[in-house]
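Same chain as my last thread, 118 residues:
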Amino acid sequence: QVQLVESGGGLVQAGGSMRLSCAASARTFRTYFMGWFRRAPGKERELVARITWSGGSTWYTDSVKGRFTISRDNAKNTVYLQMNSLKSEDTAVYYCAASTVSASWSSWGQGTQVTVSS
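reply #2:
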């Protein structure tokens, strides 16, 4: 299992940008698929973006395509979520998570609040 710590959340105006970071403890970080999830008030948690171990392949939920970018730096054991053109509906607690072939999304961070004011 890997320990994850998110940072970078806060308050931003609609149309603004924010970058979230997730630092991982494991020396085997480069073997994990990484993802960003979010849980908005009154809604279920949803997968926002994910990235393969090498960073060569990414996936985004439709509502953030063209606005969010997930990336990773395996030398720094860190995954990022760059969020542009933020909307009020992006307001949520954002979590990063790690996944392996044998244990899907088995490790989670504590979450970071992102609030977009309109």
